[in-house]
Design goal:
Blueprint (H helix, E strand, L loop, with lengths): L44 H21 L18 E4 L6 E4 L1
Antiparallel strand pairs: 1-2
């Protein structure tokens, strides 16, 4: 059997000191996100691709005018969809369905 004894120290004289604190830092945003969606419906795929490439170049020129470097730009592949024309028999109106 082991016997251990302990004594507590005396409490400090008044006043007791209690400290609470908090801090807030407000920082301006340093990241912005802009989405551009370019859409074109031309007679041929080659015409559409040419137009989209021209529009993409215009967007890049716009961004570089505001000192946005190419390394900060994220681009995605062209999404290709087929649009077909459906005409109603009763009328001469046609609808393009993408």
């Amino acid at each position: 059997m082991i016997s251990i004894s302990a004594e507590a120290g005396t409490l400090p004289a008044y006043p007791f000191i209690h400290v609470n604190g908090s801090a807030t830092i407000t920082l301006p945003a340093n990241i912005a996100e802009m989405d551009f969606e370019l859409t074109s419906f031309e007679a041929s795929a080659d015409e559409t691709l040419t137009l989209l490439n021209a529009q993409s170049s215009e967007v890049l020129e716009f961004l570089s005018a505001y000192q946005i470097i190419a390394a900060d730009i994220e681009a995605h592949d062209t999404r290709k969809l087929v649009a077909r024309t459906r005409c109603r028999q009763a009328t001469s109106a046609c609808n393009v369905i993408a």
